[in-house]
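Listing S7. Sequence submitted for prediction.
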Amino acid sequence: MKKSLGHLGKLPPTAWAGLISFTVSTAGLIAHVEPFFTWFYCFSWWSYILVIDGMNRAMEGESLLVDHTADFIYVSFCSVGVWLIFELFNLSLGNWHYINVPRSLPLRWLGYFVAYATVLPGIFETATFLKNIGVFRELENTKSWEPGKRWKLWFAVLGFSCLVLPVVLPRYFFPLVWLGFVFLLEPLNFSQGQPSLVREATRGNWRELGLLLIAGAICGFLWELWNYWAGGKWIYTVPWVGNIRLFEMPVLGFLGFPPFAVECYIMMTSLFLFRDRLLGEGRTKIPRKSRRSKIMKATTVLLALGCYCVVFHLIDKYTVISYR
């Protein structure tokens, strides 16, 4: 790591901006100065993303934010949609609620968007950092896994069950939402030639899975840490996991973060497939018609934003319990 990082002067300006942002927002939190107090979670997470992206670039010579900006923007935009899927599940589960959010609707909805846009970039940047420093290198050439001829069918059935049971019997099956899309979408990614954890496992490469699990654990700790101190935050009402808490989260609840990171990776892989096939981008060889592509992009973005606003309204109505 020392050899890769060299001295701090090699960090790109974005990383230094992140360090400054985190310092200023932390001072604002301590002094109860707005907007840092209410929005500390957003400030801390975007600061973290800027810093760790800069460290990745210092080590490897490229990073998602600086060198693949279009992909970074796409991941961040999709991150909002991915998390809102779980907000919809939470309407039935009732596992978390928001308190002390701003009364101003435009400011509140902007805050939702900015906060949810950090989820996937945070996980992926952390996994990349772990890879860059050599974590789990020994898992690249190990025993391969043979999933069997009907694994795709069983994965699809299991994935569907994991997404239906929490809605039907939320009190007993709520943890399954953090696994459902893993099983439901992995057969699609595998069949379409997308990056696939199953394919890597059949080659004896378990490193990507291990990195995602650890990244999920790290991000889960940071999510709860920075949420705990923020003025606007979430609280939990999770059954069956006990009253022993670390920050706002029941300790057993931290077990959900590693599989959630795997789920986010698989969902994002499917979303890249959507972009490449339907919008004619990426590395696919699909013919592109510039005007049609632009119209499809604009239409897709507008439809997505419309859906985001609908879910934001549902969050306001059913998940928020106090304003400031």
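Caption to Listing S7: primary sequence and predicted structure tokens for the chain studied. Residues 258 and 281 are 30 Å apart (CA to CA). Strands lie at 96-99, 233-236, 245-246, 249-250.
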